[in-house]
# Entry
Amino acid sequence: MLNRDLVSEVYQLEDKRPVVLRDLSIAVIVGYQHPPGEYIAYTKYVYTGKGLWKGYERLVKKYSPSDVLTGRVIYDPNFETKVPIVSMSNIIEAPDPLKRMEEILSSPKDEHENEALTVKEKTSLDLGISGSLLLKIHHKRSDIDLLIYSKYEDAWEILREYGKTDPQWIVNVSERVGLDIETVKRYYYSKAIRSIWNKYPISFSYVKRYYREQYGSFPRRTNRIYEGEITLGDVEDRTFLYPHFRKGSVNVLSFESAYLRLLVECEKVWVKAPVFESDEETFVVLGTKEYPGVMKPRQPCR
# Structure
């Protein structure tokens, strides 16, 4: 049985939150629209006793839409596609990213925790710990995954000035979205998403606590493809949250986080992607399994 505190919390978990399931596998929650009693979440680790992560082995090594179809997979009518899913009743633990950061602040135990503490102290941001460091299953070569909970635009401006460029992120994105390495490095990469502090690769994700979008409100697919320039409106908090959204002459929704810099820093973009519609608005949607699409910058971009 879930303890009382977890019963209350488990219905409000944020994007990127790892959860431990009854079979001791570990899943990661995706986004903020979930079926009743369920979470869209992919199984990232399974316990075999042989893995690098204190006996856990990693199932997901890349983050394409097909690579995260791990664990229980269903067809979801809201998104009109197959998604990985876990039942809330199957969650036995949901480690708290902010409490884990507080624990590290009070008494860091190893080099990874010391580096997370360094980021917190240098930036003074509202940061939580995610990934293997949250779960305390990290090893010497583990990345550090940090969550940003508030003042996203301020955090973006601070983080883009720190650390060193991570060439592996650029290579991974180049392979995933089909753009050449130099283009990705120049227009898509930002240290506000991924950087190297000392010797540690650090990922930054922007999340919101106690936030849920209405399930069933995702726009419907059409059989049309949009190709052309889009003038974007103001950057909002929702731009930073997954899937990334920005209003414009055509609204943009992106499940591909590699486009986040363009959505934050550009006023005009060129997009080729499927058209989705709600009762009142039209969207282009990037990063789906069926048609990933592409977004390119148009000037002016910062």
